[in-house]
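The passage that follows is intended for readers who have already worked through the single-chain material. We present the inputs for a multi-component assembly, then the predicted structure in tokenized form, and finally a short commentary. You are encouraged to pause after the input and sketch how you expect the pieces to fit together before reading on.
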Amino acid sequence: QVEMVESGGGVVQPGRSLRLSCTASGFAFGTYGMHWVRQPPGKGLEWVASIWYDGSDKSYVESLRGRITISRDNSKSTLFLQMNSLTAGDTALYFCARENLLLGYGAFDIWGQGTAVTVSS
Amino acid sequence: SSEVTQDPAVSVALGQTVRITCQGDGITTSYATWFQQKPGQAPRLVIYGKNNRPSGIPDRFSGSRSGDTASLTITGTQAEDEADYFCTSRDIDNNRFVFGTGTKVTVL
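Having made your guess, compare it with the prediction:
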């Protein structure tokens, strides 16, 4: 069964850091590019970051560049998102998504259920 | 492709056809992909590439593109199609993506 499960979310104070994880199962994780997408409560989707299948290339949304780092451990089928200097604007549900290049760019065909991050004092 | 716009909401009668559009510079060079999201659920891919559906997506969903505008059409809309729909566009220069603002489809 193909599945991805996010973890690491929670309530965190402004200015603190958080590392999110996404553990995949049921497919060859190390052969797919991966993405993080977030969704503030009641709002739309925002693409956050991506990483190539081997970790050799990474891209970030410009507004978060410098505060976040995407990484992966293919030996553990796990994707990470390190977020620093958190603000209330980072409050959102964070999804990981698999990009299936056999279908085409942007074909995010598998999604996790998300992990909620709330930044509040 | 810094911004991708969609109409905020559209309503459609049961069994009728609805078209949702998505406009942005990046769409001229890269096909948009479309996602359906129902309350409390993760997004689900419904259209990718020129006009392709993943396994399990009904053939009443179709996609097209003209210039900087991509469209998702639902022909013979069913009650279960009521959801938010998002497109995403890729900037080929830096491999960044941007999601459209989303369209809420209400089935009457």
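Commentary: Residues 8 and 24 of chain A are 15 Å apart (CA to CA). The mean pLDDT of chain A is 97. How closely did your sketch match?
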